[in-house]
């Protein structure tokens, strides 16, 4: 009996955590501040929109987690209007079947590769350039991949990124997507683009301009969702049959690998990636061996100073030793 009860409590904890993470993700996508309430129906609609690209089992787990989280909020709400919003969102979510989810999802780690080598990158870019008139999202994907490959931003962060022209060069200002989850040291980070490599600034300008004039006047989150789905289909067409395929996020992984191969210090890499500590990119991103030396952005010294150095706190640990290999 105790084992069953223990499993139930652990399951509820897991549901509560995942439900909160889904809501934080939606808030970040729509640019809501840390104290701005998220409309519960918006979270439900977001989850439903993701169904075509996730497996049935992932859909069931996400649905159960978000439902659990919204039920907790409804039970604790003293605002009648808020309670009705939560109940309305719960009704929509409860009535949504798993029909439309994939037998095997496109966003699982089983088929997503960390990083995208130069050979695959060139194949993809060449295909997109040659087919801009044939595929609606080819240009969008091309400019997004190019800028992400060179700067390492999370795809969702491009919606609020902007450039500052300074006397000492061009700076890309990025709102950290993980700041609301306390997984980024600062609300914003600043990437100094190399003046010796104008291709970086040009790629960023091309993407930011394209986002402002995105096709159909879609909201940024919807634009990104459609471009991501196109990436899934295009990758299979371009790269042929294989076990793993790159996603847009893979190009962020590749940036991390290139930075490691270039000898970028761990705390600067964390600042470039928008992490709170120097451990995240080290253990959860592509390895140095997968990278190619040569990146053309540098982190703000203020951002670097704010990074928590977890690895240095335990120099004798296995993980700390692994970093030096």
From TrEMBL:
SUPFAM superfamilies: DNA breaking-rejoining enzymes. Transmembrane segments: none annotated. Keywords: DNA recombination. InterPro entries: DNA_brk_join_enz, Integrase-like_cat_sf, Integrase_catalytic. Residues 112-302 form the Tyr recombinase domain. This is Integrase. The lineage of its organism: Bacteria, Pseudomonadati, Pseudomonadota, Gammaproteobacteria, Lysobacterales.
């Amino acid at each position: 009996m105790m084992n069953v009860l223990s499993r139930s409590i652990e399951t509820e904890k897991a549901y509560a955590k995942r439900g909160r993470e889904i809501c934080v993700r939606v808030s970040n996508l729509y640019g809501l501040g840390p104290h701005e309430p998220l409309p519960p129906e918006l979270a439900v609609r977001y989850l439903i929109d993701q169904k075509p690209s996730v497996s049935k089992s992932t859909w069931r787990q996400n649905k159960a987690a978000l439902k659990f989280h919204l039920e907790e909020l409804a039970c604790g709400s003293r605002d009648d209007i808020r309670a009705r919003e939560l109940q309305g969102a719960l009704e929509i979510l409860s009535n949504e079947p798993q029909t439309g989810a994939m037998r095997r999802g496109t966003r699982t780690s089983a088929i997503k590769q960390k990083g995208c080598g130069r050979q695959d990158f060139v194949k993809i870019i060449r295909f997109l350039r040659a087919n801009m008139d044939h595929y609606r999202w080819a240009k969008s994907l091309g400019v997004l991949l190019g800028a992400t490959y060179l700067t390492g931003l999370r795809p969702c962060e491009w919606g609020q990124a902007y450039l500052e022209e300074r006397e000492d060069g061009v700076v890309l200002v990025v709102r950290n997507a993980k700041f609301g989850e306390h997984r980024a040291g600062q609300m914003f980070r600043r990437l100094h683009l190399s003046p010796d490599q104008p291709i970086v600034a040009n790629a960023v300008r091309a993407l930011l301009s394209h986002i402002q004039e995105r096709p159909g006047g879609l909201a940024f989150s919807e634009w990104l969702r459609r471009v991501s789905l196109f990436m899934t289909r295009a990758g299979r067409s371009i790269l042929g049959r294989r076990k793993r395929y790159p996603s847009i996020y893979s190009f962020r992984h590749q940036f991390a690998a290139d930075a490691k191969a270039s000898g970028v210090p761990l705390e600067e890499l964390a600042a470039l990636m928008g992490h709170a500590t120097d451990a995240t990119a080290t253990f959860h991103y592509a390895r140095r061996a997968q990278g190619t030396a040569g990146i053309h952005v540098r982190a703000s010294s203020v951002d670097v100073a704010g990074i928590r150095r977890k690895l240095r706190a335990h120099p004798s640990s296995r993980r700390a030793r692994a970093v030096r290999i």
